[in-house]
Write a structure and sequence with these properties.
Elements lengths: L5 H10 L8 E2 L8 H4 L5 H4 L11 E4 L2 E5 L5 E4 L5 H7 L6 H4 L1 E2 L7 E2 L5 E9 L1 H7 L6 H22 L3 E9 L3 E10 L1 E7 L2 H4 L3 H4 L11 E7 L13 E2 L18 E6 L10 H30 L3 H31 L1 H17 L2 H7 L2 H28 L1 H15 L13 H16 L3 H16 L19 H11 L5 H7 L4 H6 L3 H42 L12 E6 L14 E3 H7 L10 H8 L15 E6 L11 E3 L5 E8 L17 E5 H11 L3 H6 L4
Antiparallel strand pairs: 1-14, 2-3, 2-7, 3-4, 4-11, 5-10, 6-10, 7-9, 8-9, 10-11, 11-12, 13-14, 13-17, 15-16, 16-19, 17-18, 18-19
Helix pairs in contact: 6-7, 7-21, 10-11, 10-12, 10-14, 14-15, 14-17, 14-21, 15-21, 17-18
Length: 710
């Protein structure tokens, strides 16, 4: 376990308050003195909805970040972000996961099914419209339903007024602030280049979330549009998208202590939450996920050992689970190491004293923290059942497919704005596509094993928590026979059968007598109960968090940066090492020499023959870091990032690309809850390594020319 001295812990805790902010929305750029900090760009050069700016090159791609790096729509993002597309392209005959992929012409580029690109065009505040709709005395569930419907109405109107645009509304502060974002939305994305696994995932899960790192975590994709320049589904007649601006690559890279910044789409942070939330995460939810994900990974890795076809099929699922698994391990260790729950309790004691010091505040907020405590006590009561029901459907591709078909039969007859989001017309094609992708990775032994375990755990719940479905199903002793027959008789493994029945009425679906369709019907009452319970809880928590932020800002005498929520953000810092524990210092660069030193010839430390040969021949070209005398691989910096920043470009003061963000150091997994200049470090691929791999190892001169670096 990582340890720090008592003095170090005190120092760390004292810095937590510094870091509640750091992921700046575009609307908050005016809060930063850009020139004084080190930028050579103005706020308008970074983001300008009325003209061209650097953010026109920054995209959200499949939940990660990417950036345009050529006038023909080339996209640079992470290898792990493109992993699903690489897996789709791979087979036992063409194992691109292992050997890498390079489309030497546009006709060879592989469709990346399920990937989309979003480019932020503009934003506006719609808080008043939403808050006005939910004003008045209503129960919490009703408030949530009204809010959700109002958001759908605003989105529908905005998309009607802006044909071709994708509109999303993001909650910046729960119950207080809502921003409408307008996006260009591209649906034809293709895989262009991926390095071999011995570069793109060198070190594997052993090195994941660890520094020093020696991973070339990058891939290249391309966005396409129809011949008319408008967004279109995949078609061979489509043409490369021409971005308004693309990033210039600085071949000189970066040196230690240089200023740098990142633009990207960080996923979720939870810094404006209470000790009760942190305690729930530490004691309940994250340990449960770690145990369940760890078990699934172990079982699927065993299934993959003797059959490469099975390994390819399960690889994307394993990688996704493993990333969360190790991330949560780091978070749990960070929460305990910093005793963050207790630190937050002490902050709340001071906040409560501030509330009591004023009679008006006491009247408005005096019971607020007690209400949070009551909320999480209520959550604890049903947490095991609720997590099991969530995991049950996700554990099985067939049950997930059945649930989607059954829910579609209920939702599609409703007016569009009254449907669950996944079944609205604007999302329907994507829902169908996701079903097909799930079934492409279907492997019955894994499906059968994990579904059986989850259903068995439901039987083990106390009687008061057991879901309604158990009254219909046979007893636990008959469960194995029930599942064996269900898997044998079901047609849901056939994508053609599934698509033929998508949109069927409930009665028509039930006539098929497919065992998983019938199970989805029997589970529907439990999932309806869970959705309604969560609507009520969401409305209740939203109201509490709105009050919490209000009084906390009054206490601190300053406004806050909203938690990350997958919207476009900026963070800045410097290329900088750190001391992870007493008497140790980690430098901010790794080099190709480190890959050679780690190479064992066995997974996960098996790099490519081409890399070893180029190193032995000292074929480094112009890509050496002069201060190191080596080709740099990865870089370390003190910027504020989280999930979703994967693939974010690391930029110098002028806005030129010098690296590609892909990870955090293990100590920084705690970033989602608290950040400190002492231990929060993010990791990126040095652009010189990317160029060296493309040039000296892959012979990808076509891409280098297109990127303007050759």
């Amino acid at each position: 376990m990582l340890r720090k001295s008592i003095i170090g812990i005190v120092c760390l805790l004292s810095t937590l308050a510094i870091a509640e902010e750091g992921m700046y929305p575009m609307s908050d750029l005016n809060r930063v003195d850009l020139k004084q900090i080190g930028f050579q760009l103005t706020a308008n050069q970074i983001f300008n909805p009325d003209s061209i700016s650097i953010t026109d090159a920054i995209i959200n791609i499949g939940g990660c970040t990417g950036s345009f790096i050529s006038p023909q729509g080339l996209i640079l993002t992470n290898h792990h972000c493109a992993f699903g597309a690489i897996q789709q392209a791979s087979s036992t005959e063409h194992d691109y996961l292992t050997n890498g992929f390079h489309a030497k012409s546009k006709t060879e580029e592989f469709p990346a099914k399920g990937y989309t690109v979003r480019i932020t065009e503009s934003y506006r505040d719609v808080s008043s419209q939403i808050l006005e709709a939910v004003s008045g005395d209503r129960d919490f569930a009703a408030r949530t339903k009204i809010k959700d419907k109002k958001i759908k109405e605003i989105i529908a109107q905005a998309e009607k007024e802006n044909p071709g645009m994708r509109v999303e509304i993001s909650e910046m502060f729960p119950g207080r602030t809502y921003m409408l974002f307008m996006y260009t939305y591209l649906k034809d994305v293709r895989l262009v280049y991926a390095p071999p696994i011995g570069i793109g995932n060198f070190g594997g899960e052993e090195d994941n979330w660890v520094w020093p790192r020696h991973t070339g975590d990058f891939s290249i994709m391309r966005a396409y549009v129809g011949p008319d320049g408008k967004a279109a589904d995949y078609n061979t007649a489509n043409v490369p998208y021409a971005p308004r601006v693309f990033l210039k690559i600085d071949k000189q890279g970066v040196q230690e202590n240089e200023f740098a910044f990142i633009l990207g789409y960080p996923g979720r942070t939870y810094r404006h939450t209470t000790s009760h939330y942190l305690d729930y995460e530490e004691s309940v939810r994250m340990p449960w996920i770690v145990d369940w994900y760890g078990y699934q990974i172990e079982q699927m890795e065993t299934m993959s050992k003797t059959d490469r076809g099975v390994a390819i099929k399960l690889s994307d699922r394993i990688k996704g689970l493993a990333n969360t698994y190790k991330n949560y391990q780091g978070k749990l260790q960070g929460l305990r190491r910093l005793d963050l729950v207790e630190a937050r309790r002490q902050e709340e004691a001071k906040l409560q004293a501030f509330i009591k010091s004023d009679s008006a505040r006491q009247a408005q907020y005096g019971n607020l923290l007690n209400e949070f405590a009551a909320y999480y006590q209520d959550l604890h009561k049903t947490s095991e059942r609720d997590m099991l029901l969530d995991a049950l459907q996700r554990s099985s591709a067939l049950l997930q497919t059945a649930g989607t078909l059954y829910q579609a039969s209920i939702e599609l007859p409703k007016p569009d704005l009254e449907r669950e989001s996944a079944y609205m017309t604007r999302n329907l094609d994507r829902t169908k596509q996701q079903l097909q992708l799930i079934l492409e990775d279907y492997y019955q032994p894994a499906d059968r094993l994990f579904l059986g375990i989850m259903m068995g755990k439901l039987y083990d719940l106390p009687a008061s928590l057991q879901p309604h479905v158990l009254r219909i199903l046979p007893g636990k002793d008959k469960l194995p026979d029930f599942l064996d027959k269900a898997f044998k008789k079901s047609n849901l493994h056939d994508p053609k059968w599934v698509m033929a029945h998508f949109g069927s009425s409930t009665a028509e679906l039930l006539k098929t007598r497919d065992p998983f369709i019938l199970l989805a019907r029997d589970l529907d009452q439990d999932y309806q109960m869970l959705r309604e319970l969560r609507r009520a809880r969401s409305g209740r928590l939203e109201q509490l968090l709105a009050q919490y932020v209000d009084v906390k800002q009054a206490y601190k005498g300053e406004s806050f940066i909203p938690d990350a929520n997958s919207t476009l953000r900026l963070t800045y810092g410097h290329i900088r090492g750190y001391s992870p524990r007493d008497a140790l210092y980690s430098a901010p660069f790794t080099t190709v020499r480190g890959i050679i030193e780690k190479h064992t010839g066995k997974d996960p430390y098996q790099t490519t023959d081409a890399l070893r040969a180029a190193y032995a021949a000292e074929n480094f070209g112009e890509y050496i870091n002069p201060a190191l005398g080596q080709v740099p691989v990865d870089i370390l910096y003190d910027m504020d990032t989280t999930g979703g920043n994967s693939g974010s470009p690391v930029l110098n003061a002028k806005g030129d690309l010098i690296g590609l963000n892909f990870d955090r150091a293990f100590e920084a997994t705690i970033n989602d809850y608290a950040w400190s200049t002492l231990y929060s470090r993010s990791i990126g691929v040095d652009v010189r390594f990317i160029l060296w791999v493309l040039d000296k190892l892959s012979g990808a001169e076509d891409l280098l020319h297109e990127m303007g670096v050759k």
